[in-house]
């Protein structure tokens, strides 16, 4: 079984407004992360800031994109390809975030993006999660379906370039995270899904949780939720809090 470092991903979404702010945030985070022992940090700024932040990459800090297009080049106005991102020095790509799925990104498109990302040598952070946490547990089969179709044609060998980020949509951008016990239940279910599909130990693929992660709940979520890291939206923009979370997780 593989022993991973914990992974903390900051998804900045469409923030901050200026390059100066983005640089300032990155410098502060990088300063702290020099001393990290058990944690790896991935910053996912908007595309426009990637180039200026490239020099901030270090042993502990990687850069990620929030999306990538699956065709490598051509007449695709407004798109940025995974091939371009990879050539540029980006290491991670968030794929299938619920905010993109809500704009019509289907499982099929998500799968194409996962394949392109992995094929271009980067790590795909495949986001899955239910919109409604129904009483009958139907969300389990939905998450399974998102994983199976998201990873279609991804070989067992390529799984080391896959991270699964479980983000219940109802918790993303909301005021309440999922209960750690429920996260643990889902983490076990995802591991079983991967074991059934690939015959691997579930722990061989890193599973993250995302959705209202804060300084206050990050420890409980990580320990009691049995996840290998966190995908953080709003709290990653408050640099002081983000650094605090990283410190807490590194101390586990
Ligand atoms: P949030 O967002 O931490 O603001 O809930 C998480 C995400 O969208 O990845």
From TrEMBL:
Name the SUPFAM superfamilies for this protein.
Triosephosphate isomerase (TIM)
Copy the pathway line from the protein's UniProt record: Carbohydrate biosynthesis; gluconeogenesis; Carbohydrate degradation; glycolysis; D-glyceraldehyde 3-phosphate from glycerone phosphate: step 1/1
Q: Which GO terms describe its biological process?
A: gluconeogenesis; glyceraldehyde-3-phosphate biosynthetic process; glycerol catabolic process; glycolytic process
Task: Report if keyword Magnesium is assigned.
Answer: no
Keywords from the named record: Cytoplasm, Gluconeogenesis, Glycolysis, Isomerase
Please list the reactions this protein catalyses.
D-glyceraldehyde 3-phosphate = dihydroxyacetone phosphate
> Cross-referenced Pfam families, in alphabetical order?
TIM
GO terms for cellular component:
cytosol
Location in the cell reads: Cytoplasm
Extract the Gene3D superfamilies matched here: Aldolase class I
Q: Is Cytoplasm one of the keywords? A: yes
**What is known about its subunit structure?**
Homodimer.
PANTHER family in the record, alphabetically?
Answer: TRIOSEPHOSPHATE ISOMERASE
Protein name, per record: Triosephosphate isomerase
* Gene source species: Candidatus Zambryskibacteria bacterium RIFCSPHIGHO2_02_38_10.5
User: Source organism lineage?
Assistant: Bacteria, Candidatus Zambryskiibacteriota
């Amino acid at each position: 079984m593989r022993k991973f470092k914990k992974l903390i991903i900051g998804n900045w979404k469409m923030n901050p407004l200026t390059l100066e702010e983005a640089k300032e945030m990155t410098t502060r985070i990088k300063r702290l992360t020099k001393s990290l022992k058990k944690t790896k940090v991935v910053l996912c700024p908007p595309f426009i800031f990637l180039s200026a932040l490239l020099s901030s990459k270090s042993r502990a800090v990687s850069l990620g994109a929030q999306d990538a297009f699956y065709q490598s080049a051509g007449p695709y106005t407004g798109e940025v390809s995974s091939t371009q991102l990879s050539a540029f020095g980006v290491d991670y790509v968030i794929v299938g975030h619920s905010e993109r799925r809500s704009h019509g990104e289907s499982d099929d498109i998500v799968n194409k993006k996962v394949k392109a990302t992995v094929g271009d040598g980067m790590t795909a952070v495949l986001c899955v999660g239910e919109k409604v946490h129904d009483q009958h547990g139907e969300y389990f089969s939905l998450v399974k379906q998102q994983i199976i179709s998201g990873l279609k044609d991804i070989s067992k060998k390529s799984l080391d370039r896959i991270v699964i980020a479980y983000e219940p949509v109802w918790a993303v951008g909301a005021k309440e995270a999922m209960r750690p016990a429920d996260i643990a239940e889902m983490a076990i279910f995802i591991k079983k899904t991967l074991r059934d599909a690939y015959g691997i130990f579930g722990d061989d693929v890193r599973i993250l949780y995302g959705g209202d992660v804060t300084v206050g709940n990050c420890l409980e979520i990580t320990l009691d939720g049995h996840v290998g890291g966190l995908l953080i939206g709003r709290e990653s923009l408050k640099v002081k809090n983000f650094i605090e979370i990283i410190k807490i997780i590194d101390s586990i």
